């Protein structure tokens, strides 16, 4: 007897839309107002990372491009810089087109941490080249490092909640790792 796999694409849309709304509200309301040691939280980077690690493929890249473009329009940085960086980051994060959060959450978090550090460094250097930042010390120690640490810390609750929602849809008879359940069920008393 084979297991029935239900592919609910509307659930994927609902999860991404809810995640986008939460990240957009947090980016607009809290992003500019919370600064720790000169670093600010980039909720659109967190959204792009969550979508790329959960769904990957073209869907993750397109969502990341839209999030990056929205980030660029909400800030005073160069338009298109964050859109390009998030698109590139999501392409590499979601290259396998599978749900990495359900398979290996620790590995997915490590990938996001490296990606967030690279995106933040490239964006801060882009701001420095357009004369919006100060010296190299200001870029690295007062902007890049605190921003990266804040992004990584704030990413953890998002990834924990997203990994528990079952972003790939319900799969009857399958575990999160994709293997079918084997073994017998012993029911005592019947």
UniProtKB/TrEMBL annotation:
Keywords: Cell membrane, Cell shape, Membrane, Transmembrane, Transmembrane helix. NCBIfam families: shape_MreD. GO terms for biological process: regulation of cell shape. InterPro entries: Cell_shape_determining_MreD. Its main location: membrane. One of its GO terms (cellular component) is plasma membrane. The chain crosses the membrane at residues 15-36, 43-71, 77-95, 107-130, 142-162. Belongs to the MreD family. It is found in: Cell membrane. It is a multi-pass membrane protein. This is Rod shape-determining protein MreD. It comes from the Bacteria. It comes from Granulimonas faecalis.
